[in-house]
Amino acid sequence: MSEKKSYGFTTTILHNDRQKPIEHGSLHKPIHTSVTFGYNDARQLASVFQGREAGFRYGRQGNPTISALEDKITKMEDGVSTLCFATGMGAIGAVFQALLRAGDQIVSSSFLFGNTNSLWQTAAGQGVEVAFADATDVANVEAALTPATRLVFVETIANPRTQVADLARIGRLCKERGILFVVDNTMTSPYLFRPRTVGAGLVVNALTKSIGGHGNALGGSLTDTGVYDWSAFPNIAANYKRNPPAQWGMAQLRAKALRDFGASLAPEAAHHIAVGAETLALRMERASANALAVARMLEADARVAAVHYPGLASHPQHALATDLFKAYGSLLSFELKDGIDCFDYLNRLKLGISASNLGDTRTLVIPVSHTIFYEMGAERRASMGIAESLIRVSVGIEDSADLLDDFQSALAGAAT
User: Fold this and answer.
1) What is the mean pLDDT of residues 236-258?
2) Residue 213 and residue 202: Cα distance in Å, rounded?
3) Do the Cβ atoms of 402 and 351 come closer than 8 Å?
4) Angle, to 10 degrees, between the axis of helix 400-412 and the axis of helix 280-299?
5) Is pLDDT above 80 for 150?
6) In what order do the strands lie in the sheet with 364-367?
7) Tens of pLDDT, residues 171-215
8) Structural domains in the chain?
């Protein structure tokens, strides 16, 4: 495989490890469990620590297995560099921990994963102002900006109500104002969408979800796309400015979030994620097709009050999603008509598993208000459009006919 030739998404990921020498001709980068790395020349050790040459210092800041995964994610996102973390929340927390200071402002989409919402509450308690805006319209984001705004944060498709952010227009706004645009790409994955195309400077991926894909490893990543001018960011410490400006952001993130904060990915998890990533495109195509079929079936059933899925023509951002994404993803949610108990419905499913993960090969279902968004409280849930009967579905790669039969049979057993 030649690096000069342009290959497709899956071909690139499958053969990426072999672009650098691998021990004993292995096709995968092996699992390196060592946390420390020795050098025969002490001057070389110093040079690596000072960033004057490439090398590994200590396992908290990376090792060969993790580095190979980071390179894979960078290729997926068409970026310039990637840092991996222990979890997706570790990656989002790194943005707050390493880049923001008291008095700064974040403008965040109102429509957020519950744990991200909780993290922003923590940030607010430590002196960072957080302004929430309906990111489906760039005008709302613009209205929330202040001179203290350091970054805008959005999810591509919001979890769990599937609102789609006005990504391209927000990206243009951030570029005009010199603001860092951070996009959580977890719900779409780099196969369906590359945030770089809309001006995102940093891209978040919860590697636990679709990229790993098998529910067997936790991980998260931040990718620098190369489109943001880090010389415009006011919070870069002087010692990281010894690097070229394009490297400032990731240098500070690696030091402040990995070295100092320690949210490091384990090499065993990195290996699981890297192997899972090889089939990302195949799984996303199948899961997205299944999700669209299930959404259409649910929308046509009189016992269902509402279905939220960007692939439906009835979705408020259907046209936007069609313009942005290769497909509409594996996440949908729906509400049952009054009088139908959501717990009883979920218990009648045979294939849909009551569980809290996303992006698994198996279809996972969860009653949102009673579990992952329970701590948020009824008032905040209502402001996000989360009904008490809302069921989130992470659609897997089962045979479509089997899934349709399962969800329909469960409805057939509901009292009307």
Assistant:
1) 93
2) 22
3) yes
4) 30
5) yes
6) 304-308, 331-336, 391-394, 364-367, 353-354
7) 999 999 999 999 999 999 999 999 999 999 999 999 999 999 999
8) 15-277 (3.40.640.10), 279-413 (3.90.1150.10)
